[in-house]
Amino acid sequence: MYAQMVDTGVRSVKGQAEMTTEERAFQARIDADIRIEPKDWMPEAYRRTLIRQVSQHAHSEIVGMLPEGNWVTRAPSLKRKAILMAKIQDEAGHGLYLYSAAETLGITRDQMVADLHSGKAKYSSIFNYPTLSWADIGAIGWLVDGAAIMNQIPLCRCSFGPYARAMVRICKEESFHQRQGYDIMLSLSRGTAEQKAMAQDALNRWWWPSLMMFGPPDAESVHSAQSAAWKIKILSNDELRQRFVDQTVPQADYLGITMPDPDLQWNPERNHYEFGAIDWSEFMEVLKGNGPCNRDRLATRVKAWDDGAWVRDAAMAHAAKRASRQQVA
Ligand code: FAQ
Predict the structure, then answer these.
(1) To test ligand 1's pocket by mutation, which of 122, 226, 283 has the most ligand atoms within 8 angstroms of CB?
(2) How far apart are CA 207 and CA 202, in angstroms?
(3) Is 219 near ligand 1, meaning CB less than 6 Å away?
(4) Among the four residues 28, 47, 195, 210, which has the most C-beta atoms within 10 Å?
(5) CA 125 to ligand 1: nearest atom
(6) What is the pLDDT of residues 74-116, one digit of tens each?
(7) What percent of the chain has pLDDT over 70?
(8) How far apart, in Å, are the Cα atoms of 10 and each of 5, 227, 235, 255, 260?
(9) pLDDT tens for residues 235-246?
(10) Ligand 1 pocket test: which of 62, 136, 151, 236 has the largest number of ligand atoms within 8 Å of its C-beta?
(11) What is the position in ligand 1's atom list of the atom closest to the CA of 227?
């Protein structure tokens, strides 16, 4: 897989002959599966790639709280509400571990937040879609967390130590999130005809955007070849997408709802489901800021940051007072 990605990548990878002595030694450590830690020497491009990916990942966790937050006050029971609140708080925790991992690469949290708020930094395309019914909370847990786990399990083995270690705990929590989403879908699909229709409608709207979460096709992925060579990416975008489809179709069958893809069919020769064409023009529009909720999501984040300024000021004043008391003692 690794060799295949290097061959097909849009951006070429530096060959051994073009590398400096330091770069060759670095690549040898990667090839020997030795983890890179923050104080180790690393090529500037490796550092930048990780800052880009880890900070985008952190932003996704934080912005990802918003579509679900929309349903906290309208969850159908106290139990569902408590579970949803716990899940959303977990996502905040994931964002914080990931911001901390990115900080070890020499970027400040303030800079990352500023890049998100100015629209310079990306976050996952999936969080620019609206949550129109309670079934959407089920679909997010089942499909979005399901896709996130598929992508993140290999990241537990990635070459950068702080990112790999953060992913271990995140993946454990994401599995609980996936189960809670599937449990909501199960209740709805075993419920009244109207509830089953809600579950079907949520699947219809979230299926294709979930497939887009894995990123562009390998042949068009700008960063894949170099990220594979550096073992930041262990499996390719298309390979992860295929695994997700293969895992999820039987789960939809068990729910008794139908994938919104007339071309979906099992191919016994490939031992995979074949699926229809993804509308990449929709993905590109969302990335450009033109998805159904892009502007709303960013405005909500900026407002939350501004409204929370007094909490940050109070915490800093408290910390400064404690430090000066400790100095006196
Ligand atoms: N959305 O060359 P590639 C979650 C961009 S966490 C937006 O293939 P790469 C938890 C990409 O950045 C979900 N942009 O890029 C949760 C690049 O643009 P750039 C987040 C995307 O980095 C659940 C350009 O396209 N997970 O859901 C997307 O090698 C429920 C070219 O693409 C992660 O971040 C996209 N979907 O591969 C929370 C996992 N795809 O930066 C709340 C870590 C691609 O040059 C509720 N990230 N782009 O301007 C990764 O594994 C990788 O970054 C990929 C993209 C696979 C996402």
Answers:
(1) 122
(2) 8
(3) no
(4) 210
(5) 1
(6) 999 999 999 999 999 999 999 999 999 999 999 999 999 999 9
(7) 97
(8) 9, 12, 16, 39, 31
(9) 999 999 999 999
(10) 151
(11) 29
